Amino acid sequence: MFFARRVSMKLIERFASQVQERNVGYYDTAQATNPVAMGALRKVVPVSQIVYGTDYWYRSAAETARGLTTNKVFTDEEMRAINRGNAERILPRYRA
């Protein structure tokens, strides 16, 4: 078990470094606000690549927001970026 865990962590770290080097893609929070999923996402991509998302009608915007707030994975500043700032940066003409 210990060996498998070490191998898994090495693979995650290698994948994370490759993603960060290329700075590819944006990832949304839809259907994945639990601390395990968000913690894993945070380890493999920078917060600047995470945007707010919800899969309404399966889960409401309120449920998604509550999950992100209560999971304690992100700081307040990071939550501002995820909730709005990152989207405004990549889609500047839609700023309010």
Structure description:
This protein has one domain (25-94). The model has no long low-confidence stretch (mean pLDDT 82). The chain is mainly alpha-helical. It has helices spanning 2-22, 35-44, 61-70, 76-90, and strands at residues 27-28, 50-51. It has a two-stranded parallel ribbon with strand order 1-2.
SSE order in H/E notation? HEHEHH
Task: Catalogue the unreliable spans.
Answer: none
The secondary-structure class comes to mainly alpha
Q: What is the total number of structural domains?
A: 1
Task: Summarize the amount of helix as a percent range.
Answer: 55-70%
Please provide the count of β strands: 2
Q: Per DSSP, what share of the residues sits in E-state strands of 2 or more residues?
A: under 5%
Largest sheet: 2 strands, parallel
Helix count, DSSP H or I runs of 4 or more residues: 4
Mean pLDDT: 82
Distance between the termini: 51 Å
Shape: globular
Gyration radius over CA: 15 Å
- Largest sheet: spatial strand order: 1-2
Question: Would you spell out the secondary-structure blueprint of this structure?
Answer:
Layout: H1 2-22, E1 27-28, H2 35-44, E2 50-51, H3 61-70, H4 76-90
Parallel strand pairs: 1-2
